[in-house]
Amino acid sequence: MEQHQRTAENPIAPGIREEILRRIKAAENEHGVKVLYAIESGSRAWGFESPNSDYDVRFIYAHPLDWYLAVDLEDKRDVIEYPIVDEIDINGWDIRKALKLFLKSNPAFIEWLQSPIVYVDDGHFADQARRLMPHIASSTKGIYHYRHMAINNYREYLKKDLVPLKKYFYVLRPLLAIMWLEKFDEPAPIEFEVLRQLVADDGSLNLAITHLLERKRKSQEKEVAPAVPELNKFIECQLTRLENYAEKYKDRAVSFAPLNTLFRDVLARY
Hints:
The protein is α+β, with helices and mostly antiparallel strands and 270 residues long.
């Protein structure tokens, strides 16, 4: 099982990493699959975890060729899921499911491909998928996804006197991702510190974000605190701006051809 970490940020404690790798290997043995790529997908990858945040491990796997050559293929289960144990949440998608969702510009899969914390990498699948991202990933679909995420979290959690600290980041991160998509027309990075460079010139906003980050990293996962007016002002301004968002980017014409090629290449390797 080949493994490496793409960046030095958001390090995972060696003991936790070893346990995660053990569970991934156990999943391979239990289900008779090959894990191609496994990453951290939640707040630890985004860069605003609490001390007791879960480890949100997501992976892509492939079955042997014969598994796919079946009349009842569409009836077969294409996910592997386990209950959360000791704050480790592990589940994965079959490669065929992942690539079909990739064609639809699925935001989760696109984020997984960019995670700074990688547990397993076969050196082929994720690299090839990233090369296809400029031709497949839709900024329009990304903007609608992040807009929906920001609106829902703001309405449900931030319009109160006391708010969950982490929910600010569940609104700020998607709003900054939208700004990235609008400015660069390419998939937004998932690291919050990279995204916040888009508002680096706003001193008071950045100071409020810095204070919130410091508090979040020391607090428990569900801690609440008084609302932060400076952050609410920014959030409300952005949501108002996006109320009548209309498509600005023409969706790319994409086909299954390159994904079929990648699918066959992976099966041929294993």
